[in-house]
Every structure is written in C-alpha cells, then in structure tokens.
Amino acid sequence: MKDDVYDSEDDDMDALVNEAEKLLLSSGSLDLSERALNEGVMKTPGVSYKTAEYALSDENNDVSEYETEGTEELQEGLKALLKGNQTFTIDTIQRKLEVEVPEVLTPHWLDSLPLIVVAEEVRGRVPALISKLQHALDQKNHQEEYKELKQVKSTDECAIAKLPENKPLNRFRNILPYDFNRVELTGKHNYINASHILMNVGEMEAHYIAAQGPLPDTSHDFWQMIWEQNISVIAMLTLDVENGKVKCHQYWPDSVETPLSVCDGLYKLSLLRVQSLEHFEIREIMIENRPMGTGRLVYHFMFTNWPDQTAPDTRPLLQFLQLIHAHHTTGPILVHCSAGIGRTGALITIDLALAQIERKGRCDIFEIVLELRKQRYGMIQVKDQYTLSYLACLDALRIFGSSMELTD
C-alpha cells in the first residue's frame, strides 16, 4: 500500500483498517415514467423535518457521525421502482448548449459562450430576479437559509454502504449513499459510493450521478459504472492531490501512449487528447468493451482551481458548466470531487438553479439544496459553497441582462 496522506489522521487509520478488513474478507434496466418520478422523488408532499443538529462543520474537512431518521413516506415511490433492479436508466432532457465546438478550445471561444439562455417568454423577469438575489445577499438571507438547512437530518438508510465488505470502498466512513437511490453495478459485488440525483425543472428531467472520488481499489468500479450508465461526460472538481493530501486516485490514463486495462481486461481506456486551459483540463477518453467489440467516447472535464472548503471565481465555473453541456450527449452527468457532496453539491445546485432561470425566470436555491439532501447526505458542505450558488446565478443573470440591453 502506498504511503498516501488522507484528509486526517483518523481517515488515514480508517483507510488502513478498511484495507485489513478487505484482505480478511477476500479468504436489467428500468425506465422511469414522468408520472412515477412525480410520485416518488420529485414531489414529496407531507414531509416534515424536525429540528436537529445537522452534522456538517463549516470549519473543517471532517463530517461527523449522524443519526438516521425514519423515512416515513419520503422517497417510497422511487424505492419501490428501484427494488430488485441492478441497473438504473432514465430518459432525461438535460440543459443543452447548442454551439459548434472547435477542435481546439481557446480562451476567446470560451468567452464567447453564453453563460445562460433565458427563454424569451420569461426574459422580462430577469431585472426583478437580479434585484431579488442581490437583496438576499445584502440582507444575508442566504446565511439564514444555510443555517436552516443544517438542521435537516439524514432522511434514509445507508445499510448497504455499511456492510463489512463495502466499508473499504468508502473514502470517508460517514459519507455514504442512501440505499434507495445508490448506483448499482451489475454482478455479485454491485456497490459503489455514488448516488442517482433526479430533479424536474418544468419539462426538463435532470439526471446526475454524484460520486466520491475513486480510491485505488474502486477505480475499476468507477469505469464499470461509466459504461453501464452510458455516461458521456465526467465533471471532476478536485485535484488528485491537494496540499499534500490525496483527494482522488488518478483513474484515467497517464498519456496517449499508455492505455489502461480495467475490470480484469473487460475495458480498455485510451487517452486520445488532452487540452489545458487556465481553469480546467479536458481529456477525451475512449472506453472499449473488449468482449462486445464496441467503444464510446467520454469527455473528462477537470476544474483545476477550486480548493476544498472554498469557492472559486464564478465566471470560470459557469463556463465549465456550459462546456459540459456543449459536449454532453448520453446518460447522466457524472460529477465528483473527493467526498462527492461539497463541490459536487454546489455544481449541481448551480446547474439546476440556472435551469430554473432559463425556463421559469426564477430560482429557489434553498429548495434545490433541500431536495438534493434528500437524495445524497450533506450536499453542499460549507456556507461558502451555498453563497457561491447565489453569486454564480447573479453573475450569469447580470451578464445576460447586459447582453439584452445591447440588443434592445
């Protein structure tokens, strides 16, 4: 085992214990209709949240232990639909940016991308929404919202993730996927620390997978998930090492000359091209299923300027999102950082809020995060990430508003 440095001494010890446990332990598709989704995840009438200490800290990387509250009727519709199914697919209508993507990306081309495209019938609401978001920031309403979110308990069981054979597969002992919407791999050993995230925005049904950064012994599972879920874009929001601490195992090929073989040779991974820009790197990776004799192109987008527990500049992050939507073709959008809740939760929140603005001329960041936390524990980890969601929407709206004035 390498002398990797994890996020704390406790995490380091957990990793060693998990490795020891692993050594000891070693001696069908479902299509969800819109009606079913509305009865399950998307609308949960009658759900009430009791006041309790929410187990996330603003001050450090660790997430403390939490208690699981009875689910009552929460998410029962989706649980019933998923029960007994190993793979989970859904036809969705994601945000899509229809632009011609050049072979070589340049800063000039990125600057030309529209950060948001508001439907013509709701463009008149843009000035009022800008004022509303700015007022919320000025009055620090968003800070009160975040305090309220911190009182929400865990809403479901994580029993599968806590099984002895699955403990070594979790980067953190207490950041786990709920049972009802975890991503299930095919085969006997079907666990991966990743969650399906589904949400309706008008007629749009957004589907993401929020995942932890792969460990050395889970990177093959990660690629199995990518193949089985027909994923075409990966959004990576962490560096593999930050401040001397391992945040994510490098799961992609080192160079064009050195392809990787994973899952006992089932998949071959070939790096076709890498492009580096100021704030992100873009990789084109071909994943080949050797027995089937078929391959798929996967775009790997790494945001390189977002330290953990902080907030980056909004403009590059908005461009990053648009770059993802310009390349997305099939499957859910796979998003991961290290734990799969902080930076991952912030990016998904911003994307969903922008979708609301584009279609409805309004957004409700609090309700988005509340819904996300029903689907993966602790989404958006610190106050700065919640504030970032407001700032990113405000920045996108102001730039769009300026362009409207120029065209009037």
From TrEMBL:
Annotated organism of origin: Magallana gigas (Pacific oyster)
InterPro entries per record: NonRcpt_TyrProt_Phosphatase, Prot-tyrosine_phosphatase-like, PTP_cat, Tyr_Pase_AS, Tyr_Pase_cat, Tyr_Pase_dom
**GO cellular component terms?**
nucleus
What Gene Ontology molecular-function terms does this entry list?
A: protein tyrosine phosphatase activity
Q: Where in the cell is it found?
A: Nucleus
The name under which this protein is listed is Tyrosine-protein phosphatase non-receptor type 13
The protein's UniProt keywords, in alphabetical order, are:
Nucleus, Receptor
Tyrosine specific protein phosphatases domain location, by residue? 318-387
- Which coarse location class describes where this protein primarily resides? nucleus
Name the residues that span the membrane.
none
Q: Does the keyword RNA-binding apply?
A: no
